[in-house]
Structure formats: C-alpha cells, structure tokens
Amino acid sequence: NAGVTQTPKFRILKIGQSMTLQCTQDMNHNYMYWYRQDPGMGLKLIYYSVGAGITDKGEVPNGYNVSRSTTEDFPLRLELAAPSQTSVYFCASSYLLGGAGELFFGEGSRLTVL
Amino acid sequence: KNQVEQSPQSLIILEGKNCTLQCNYTVSPFSNLRWYKQDTGRGPVSLTIMTFSENTKSNGRYTATLDADTKQSSLHITASQLSDSASYICVVSEVRAGNNRKLIWGLGTSLAVNP
C-alpha cells in the first residue's frame, strides 16, 4: 500500500517561475491537506479539501492554488515563486476531517526558490 | 501566540535510557491530542491519540499521558533505541463553531539517542 505519494522530492526554482507539486493517495480518503514546514516553525496549513471538487483555504494560502478533480489527487500550484516559498511541503490525507482522524503524510517535497 | 508549547526544544540521551517530553496547551475547547513522530526528511507519523476524557495511552515503548485540568500532556519513551532519534510533535484539535476542528501544531522536541 503506497499511502500518500508526493512528487517531486526536491526542486529548485528561480524567482517568478511556476510549478506544481503533485500528491496522490490510494486510501480512498475524502480529506486531503497541504502543509508547509519551515525550520523552527510548526506545520502551517495552506489548503485543504473535503472531497472532489471542494477546496478551502488554510492559514497561509497566499501564492498558492489547488484543485481536486478526483478523490486520489490534490496538486498544489505555486504561481510566481518567491524566496518566501522556500520550504518543505507535505501533503496529507485522512478518513475523518481535521483532528477527528489521523493524518497520513507523504514524504515531503523540498522546494528552494533562488 | 503559540497555543501549544513543547519542552524541551531538544534533548540528547544515551541508548537504553528513558525520557519524557512535555506539551502544554491553552487550546479550549479541544477534542483530542495527538503525538506524532517525524524522522529526519520524512513526514510525521501518528504515535498516540487521546481524547479529553483519557489519561494515558500506550503504543509499545511510547506512553502518553494527559491532564485536561492542567492542560498538560507528556510522552514517555522507555528503553530508548537509536531509531527513536526524531522530532516529536504534539498536536491539539481545537473545537470550533459548527463542530469544525482546527489542528494546532507544536514546534516539536528534537530527540537524539546516542550509542
């Protein structure tokens, strides 16, 4: 069972470039999330989805976009990359929303914007 | 204002020793508290979950306690192993209007187990 799969694992972007972080899960979870983790900081929620076609902003959505066309996939789009978006990004999924259910995380995508 | 405070920030212990990590929170009302383990370069993995009515929960060598009155939780690791070297994160689920929930993440305690 693969769980939550993220690609790419590492990426270097130039300022102003755009890219998409891919996330797919095979646990048939309705709920999916994107977090960023910066050194010395707790996980910050960027966007989340409660099911196909439904997404909502988290704490730090500026500079990002998401879509949820299927239950399995939840890509995160970075438009006009900025150095402040240098971070490790984690995708997660859960059977129940938020704290009611355990979050299953991917391995993370380390993004550097230069 | 961080509503979930963890201590110590980092800890070094020798293999085989026990240790206790602390989590103090001000989140209220809350529905549950989880401890996650995050290995370097990996995503967090859930260790334990406790609701507000539970006092203790074990998972192998990991034992979590919760005192909802003092808003404190601890994670006790027994007979530590090298593989216990990781960051341990406390997460509290805040109950909001409409039965919505928000996860409040601590900054974690970085544990190093040396041979």
Task: Write the SSE topology.
The complex is a heterodimer of chains A (114) and B (115).
Chain A: E1 4-7, E2 10-13, E3 19-25, E4 31-37, E5 44-51, E6 54-57, E7 64-66, E8 76-78, E9 87-94, E10 104-105, E11 109-113
Parallel strand pairs in A: 2-11
Antiparallel strand pairs in A: 1-3, 3-8, 4-5, 4-9, 5-6, 7-8, 9-10, 9-11
Chain B: E1 4-7, E2 10-14, E3 19-25, E4 30-38, E5 45-51, E6 56-59, E7 62-67, E8 72-77, E9 86-95, E10 101-105, E11 109-114
Parallel strand pairs in B: 2-11
Antiparallel strand pairs in B: 1-3, 3-8, 4-5, 4-9, 6-7, 7-8, 9-10, 9-11
Task: Write a structural description.
The complex is a heterodimer of chains A (114) and B (115). With 114 residues, chain A is mostly beta strands. Chain A contains no helices and eleven strands. In chain A, the strands form two sheets. In chain A, strands 2, 4, 5, 6, 9, 10 and 11 form a seven-stranded mixed β-sheet that branches. A four-stranded antiparallel β-sheet of chain A has the order 1-3-8-7, with no helix packed on it. With 115 residues, chain B is an all-beta fold. Helix content of chain B is 0%, strand content 60%. In chain B, strands 2, 4, 5, 9, 10 and 11 form a six-stranded mixed β-sheet that branches. In chain B, strands 1-3-8-7-6 form a five-stranded antiparallel β-sheet, with no helix packed on it. In chain B, strand 9 and strand 10 (101-105) form a beta hairpin. Chain B is elongated, with a radius of gyration of 14 Å. Chain B starts with a strand and ends with a strand. The mean pLDDT of chain B is 92. Chain A binds chain B through residues 4, 40-43, 45, 90, 92, 97-100, 102-103, 105-108, and chain B through 2, 4, 31-32, 34, 41-46, 49, 89, 91-94, 100-103, 105-108.
